[in-house]
Amino acid sequence: MIKNLENTHIGKWQRIANFVNVDEYPVLNCPYCGEEQLHFDPESVDSRPVTKDMADSISKKYRQAKEENKKPSVLLDGLGDANGWTKLLGIGLIFAEAIVKQQDAINGLPHLMTGYLTCHACDGSVAASGMQVVAEATQNRPQTTLVKVEHFTPTIPIVPVSNNVPEPIKVELLDAFKHFHFDPLSSASKLRRAIEQFCKDMKLEGKGLHQQISSLRKIQPELADYLESLKLIGNEGTHASDVSEINLLHAFEVFQFVLEYYDRQARYKQTQANYKALMDKYCPKSEVPKLENKTAPAAKGNKQQAVVND
């Protein structure tokens, strides 16, 4: 099950949100051509040692790994009254989790890291920078080089962003992708700004985001439901602190569905000429149908049913 999850789109990005073996870095989507052919080049990596104190101050993920590594000792204290088998099982589970997820990341001296990813489809290059840790060999594992990329230049889209999406929305969403790797809270806040730009482009009534989403509900109730959930994670990123990478990955996929509205709109416009050509021949008096929200309640006297911008 875990292997299957790692091979999914979300699983892949969740892996690189943490330290990952440089030789097992997943293949990503190229920001130039969009193909899933962007490979990390281990030979391109250049690193310089940095003190653990400095690494602690500049890398949130390294700091989190150190904090998580302290937890087993606390948990082990709570097993003092357990029977022998329960205690043994608890110790095994706790240490297995600690060793796999945290210990490698802080084993040995950390380094500042730069490197490159290259697209095998279009030969485009992406610069990467972040932290590297060379984990010392143990009885069970050889020496391992782990990397945590915190900046990609240019930014790699975590979900595809269509050319039909208006530029102001794209700019904010790409910023959300950029911040995902080193500051999830800022990423969530940027996602909220992308939602605000979507509402602005839709010319929705209302002073704040809540009122604008309520206005959208009258014509696109399904999209309004999705935006409501996205607004909550945006609020959390702006005003609180409970946002994880997996929360963001789910949110990005939800927003991707919302933004497909623009593709549906574009396809509608592309089919108008074909429709008109057919109807001119077989039914000259027919009009080109409007793209309407069929799930919205048909309110009496509601003139704002069509959602296509001219």
UniProtKB/TrEMBL annotation:
| Chain residue ranges for the region called Disordered | 290-310
**Can you give the residue ranges of the DUF4145 domain?**
176-253
Protein name stated in the entry = DUF4145 domain-containing protein
Species per Swiss-Prot/TrEMBL record:
Alishewanella maricola
The taxonomy runs: Bacteria, Pseudomonadati, Pseudomonadota, Gammaproteobacteria, Alteromonadales
